[in-house]
Amino acid sequence: MNLLVTGAAGFIGSAYARMLLAPGAAEASGVTRITVLDKLTYAGSLDNLDLTHPGLTFVRGDICDTELVDRLMARASQVVHFAAESHVDRSIAAAGEFVRTNVAGTQTLLDAALRHGVERFVHVSTDEVYGSVESGSSVEEDPLSPNSPYAASKAASDLVALSYHRTHGLDVRVTRCSNNYGPRQFPEKIVPLFITSLLDGGDVPLYGDGLNRRDWLHVEDHCRAIELVRTQGTPGDVYNIGGGTELSNQELTRQLLAACGADWSRVRHVPDRKGHDRRYSIEDAKARRELGYRPRHDFASGLAATVAWYRDNRSWWVPLKSRMTA
Ligand code: NAD
């Protein structure tokens, strides 16, 4: 079966492709070919993929390109859709690309999937669509209340995706996960930004009072959950995917400092992000109950392994970081 995976030169999509291309994985997944469609924006890198793997076809292109998407969709049985503009701070600075890629791009893919009778379409989304939750945890039926332009564009794409199920009967499944961490995350996001700065002897910028709270999910647990949704989920359903480790940014910073052998003197307090959501929290009982999902990575060892990966792979992130500051 040929699976079209969008955005798999990025952080999570490439981990998902690696999982499906691992020796012996095809027997369980039924996926014999992965076709990756990725525009290679600043966030995508060919270094994240094994281009010599016989089961992988890489196509550089835009999910908004109707003709290209149409051609690829004609050969695909199923789709897992990761491609997105994904960094909240960039959406605050300029939202246009977020609406174009995340909303119009998703709709372009859905239209083509419908035209070609694609049997399944997994849309990867985020807990940020529920907005900030002061207490308790968001469930799949909660109303969406996104606050940043990034979250709003993801919420819009979720709704468009689900409308193709309700209106046209397309088998769409939506996942909403918490903050991912792990190797190969672009060094603008908090975990790799802090690790790479600390490894380089620099300081780390902590927003506001540092008390914003997030749940942390190892990227490999997230990928296993997506695969459970793809293979065992229900058409038209939404699945929250959590990691089970809720931390304030201050607590996360302390753990990162300890893992990198640094202390609090390396923290630089900076003005808070505009409209910074205080807390995200999702209830993922549905994925646990219906799909048997359980995160396997414990946060402390997952974080230690992530720090070790960045320490051992400077050649991966140094060029990306110098492009960020150029
Ligand atoms: P990423 O920014 O690392 O990768 C995004 C990939 O999409 C890149 O390879 C980029 O080149 C590609 N892309 C961007 N615009 C494109 C376009 N117009 N056409 C084709 N390709 C394009 O993102 P990520 O962290 O791997 O996130 C993947 C998905 O997971 C996104 O949909 C994101 O919203 C969602 N998500 C991420 C997190 C997280 O913690 N990273 C949490 C929840 C949900």
Brief descriptors of the model:
single chain; 326 residues; alpha/beta; Rossmann fold; UDP-galactose 4-epimerase, domain 1; 2 domains; 12 helices; globular; binds nicotinamide-adenine-dinucleotide
Question: Summed up, what is this model?
Answer:
42% of the residues lie in helices and 17% in strands.
| Rg value | 19 Å
N-to-C CA distance: 42 Å
What is the annotated CATH architecture of the largest domain? 3-Layer(aba) Sandwich
Question: Largest sheet, described in full?
Answer: 7 strands, parallel
Helical content class: 40-55%
The rough form would be described as: globular
Global structural class: alpha/beta
Using DSSP, what is the number of strands?
Answer: 12
Give the tally of structural domains.
2
Please state the average pLDDT score: 97
What fold name goes in the CATH topology slot of the largest domain? Rossmann fold
In spatial order, strands of the major sheet run 3-2-1-4-5-6-10
Q: Quick one: CATH class of the largest domain? A: Alpha Beta
String of helices and strands: EHHEEHEHHEHEEHEEHEEHEHHH
Number of helices: 12
Present as ligands are:
nicotinamide-adenine-dinucleotide
| Proportion of residues in β-strands | 15-25%
Report the CATH superfamily of the largest domain.
NAD(P)-binding Rossmann-like Domain
Uncertain residue ranges: none
Structure notes:
- This protein has 326 residues and is α/β, with parallel strands linked by helices.
- It has 2 domains: 2-181 and 217-241, NAD(P)-binding Rossmann-like Domain (Rossmann fold), CATH 3.40.50.720; 191-213 and 248-278 and 298-321, UDP-galactose 4-epimerase, domain 1.
- Helices cover 42% and strands 17% of the residues.
- The chain contains 12 helices and 12 strands.
- The protein has helices at residues 11-21, 25-29, 66-73, 88-93, 96-115, 149-168, 190-199, 219-232, 249-259, 285-291, 299-312, 314-325, and strands at 2-6, 33-38, 56-60, 78-81, 120-126, 172-177, 179-181, 204-207, 213-218, 238-241, 246-248, 267-270.
- The strands form 3 sheets. It has a 7-stranded parallel beta sheet, with helices on both faces.
- It is globular.
- The chain starts with a strand and ends with a helix.
- 46% of the residues are buried.
- The model has no long low-confidence stretch (mean pLDDT 97).
- Nicotinamide-adenine-dinucleotide binds at residues 6-7, 9-13, 37-41, 43-44, 62-64, 82-86, 101, 105, 124, 126, 154, 177, 179-180, 186.
